[in-house]
Amino acid sequence: QVQLVESGGGLVQAGGSLRLSCVASGSTFSINSMGWFRQAPGKEREFVSSIIWSGGNTYYADSVKGRFTASRDNAKNTLYLQMNSLKPEDTAVYYCAARARAYTDYNYWGQGTQVTVSS
After folding, report:
1. E strands within the chain?
2. 33/40 Cα distance (integer angstroms)
3. How far is 76 from 83, CA to CA, in rounded Å?
4. Are strands 68-73 and 10-13 parallel, antiparallel or unpaired?
5. Are strands 68-73 and 2-7 parallel, antiparallel or unpaired?
6. Looking at residue 80, what is its pLDDT?
7. 95 and 112 in contact (C-beta within 8 Å)?
8. Phi/psi of residue 64, each to 5°?
9. Which of the four pLDDT bands, split at 50, 70 and 90, describes residue 43?
10. What does the pLDDT look like over 25-40, one tens digit per residue?
11. From 109's CA, which of 24, 72, 94, 117 has a CA 20 to 30 Å away?
12. pLDDT at 45 over 90
């Protein structure tokens, strides 16, 4: 089992920045990749970014490319999401997720952290 705890959400003005963190604990040796997802009110959860835990390759949704950067610190078992040039449409609950095998559903989810961008 892997436990995930996100932090770093908050209220920011449009154009501002936030950095989200996600600390993994438990059977972290089993993690293949981790991702960030978000869910806005009345909308389905959507993919934001993912990172291969060992190699560090990153992937992004088109809507955040060039503005968001995912990174990880393997020694601290921590995933980060640096969010710059935030827009009101980035407002959502952001979730961290992990999976043991590539190209499969994410097995583990955090509780989410709220990000609100005011215009």
Report:
1. 2-7, 10-13, 18-26, 33-39, 46-52, 58-60, 68-73, 78-83, 92-99, 108-109, 113-118
2. 24
3. 20
4. unpaired
5. unpaired
6. 97
7. yes
8. -120, -5
9. very high
10. 999 889 999 999 999 9
11. 117
12. yes
Q: Round to the nearest angstrom and report the end-to-end CA distance of the chain.
A: 40
* Single-letter amino acid, residue 60: Y
Quick check: 1 and 26 in contact, CB under 8 A? yes
Residue identified by tokens 């959400």 is 9
Q: Is the pLDDT of residue 20 over 90?
A: yes
> Tokens 């407002």 — which residue?
91
Q: Count of residues for the chain?
A: 119
What average pLDDT score do residues 1-22 get?
Answer: 97
Look-up: residue for tokens 């981790």?
34
Q: Which of 29, 77, 80 is nearest to 50 (CA)?
A: 80
User: What are the tokens at 30?
Assistant: 């089993």
* pLDDT band (50, 70, 90) for residue 98: very high
